[in-house]
Amino acid sequence: MPSPADGLITTDLDVALDRLRHGGLVAIPTETVYGLAADAEQPDAVGRIFEVKGRPRDHPLIVHVAGLDAIDGWTSSVPEAARTLGRTCWPGPLTMLLPRGERATDAVTGGRPTVGLRAPAHPLTHELLERFGGGLAAPSANRFGKVSPTSAEHVLHDLAEFLVPGRDAILDGGPSLVGVESTIVDLTVEPPQVLRAGAIDADEIGRLLATAVAEATGPSRASGMLEAHYEPDCLVVLADSVEAAERRVDAARADGLAADLLDRTDDVVLAAQLLYADLRDADRRGLAELVVVLPPATGIGVAIRDRLTKAAAGGARRRPSRDG
Ligand code: TXA
Ligand code: MG
């Protein structure tokens, strides 16, 4: 019997290119998470991204390009800061918000005056972008509000029922190595502001630009900054220490709940890489509660804490508090 993977998962760049040129959707591997890509200059194809994701239309999409040489037309001006960051961080996990150019349509920017640009480092997707030539609009390839995908299997699990074999594809490039979404820095404001934490932290950007950089505060303009996001079905509970986590797991089990502890604080790089697979695993195992020990808020630990806080916010909202 054919599995749903037949006709969707591929490692063939020619197939991916053909689908994109014909207005299809292709899930692309990146070093951060898998993206759901369409030709950014085909409005119908971009429109289907929102349908497949179940995402509100006014949420802007990042345009993925091969590199600094490919941003002509996507932005109306390239400030020196963008050249500096592009030279040092691209291809890599950094998205820059810049004034939009004529190629960036309202469908992509959600009608905003800015466009988010990123050159991903995954070799397969880098080659795809070089051969494609244009820009690929791509959000993370998960249903809106849910856990991001870091493998082709995750994408298949989430989106198989919405993708059409022969029209769309999932390009399999193995597991994502960074594991959390790109850092987003807004270069249209003074000083530059980090809107979403990622592998490249605000200190590093500040060092590269030799200027102060503001961290995200107050209501952000990025949808990934919604309070609840990255939500698994199980309740995510945050703990500041292993001891606190163990107490919480014991209490949950005493209540008859399937609960477990996740502690990857000894290796934050691995913790980021496996974060979304760990959250998905908790659901696959049917856990009611996953108690996670938070890493220190430095480097990529800031991004891990950000995603976990949002994963936990959803559960806290959905369920009556067990703590009274
Ligand atoms: O690592 C990543 O950035 C991944 C991979 C696929 O590149 N993409 C990703 O896309 O995380 P998405 O759509 O899940 O998250 C992008 C975030 C959203 O919160 C969106 O609102 C924000 O970036 N964004 C994009 N363009 C923007 C703009 N012009 N102004 C403000 N926020 C923007
Ligand atoms: Mg996302």
Automatic annotation (TrEMBL):
Q: What are the record keywords, sorted? A: ATP-binding, Cytoplasm, Nucleotide-binding, Nucleotidyltransferase, Transferase, tRNA processing
Positions bound to ATP: 55, 114, 118, 140, 148, 196, 230
Q: Where in the cell is it found?
A: Cytoplasm
Q: List membrane-spanning regions.
A: none
State if Transmembrane helix is listed as a keyword. Answer: no
Top enzyme class of this protein?
transferase
Q: Which GO terms describe its molecular function?
A: ATP binding; double-stranded RNA binding; L-threonylcarbamoyladenylate synthase; tRNA binding
Q: Name one GO biological process term.
A: tRNA processing
* Pfam families, A to Z: Sua5_C, Sua5_yciO_yrdC
- Coiled-coil segments on the chain, per record: none
Q: Name one GO cellular component term.
A: cytoplasm
Main subcellular localisation: cytoplasm
Q: Quote the catalytic activity from the record.
A: L-threonine + hydrogencarbonate + ATP = L-threonylcarbamoyladenylate + diphosphate + H2O
Record domain YrdC-like: where = 10-200
Q: Which residues bind L-threonine?
A: 32, 64, 138, 182
| EC nos | 2.7.7.87
Role according to the record:
Required for the formation of a threonylcarbamoyl group on adenosine at position 37 (t(6)A37) in tRNAs that read codons beginning with adenine.
> Which family, according to UniProt?
Belongs to the SUA5 family.
Q: What is this protein called?
A: Threonylcarbamoyl-AMP synthase
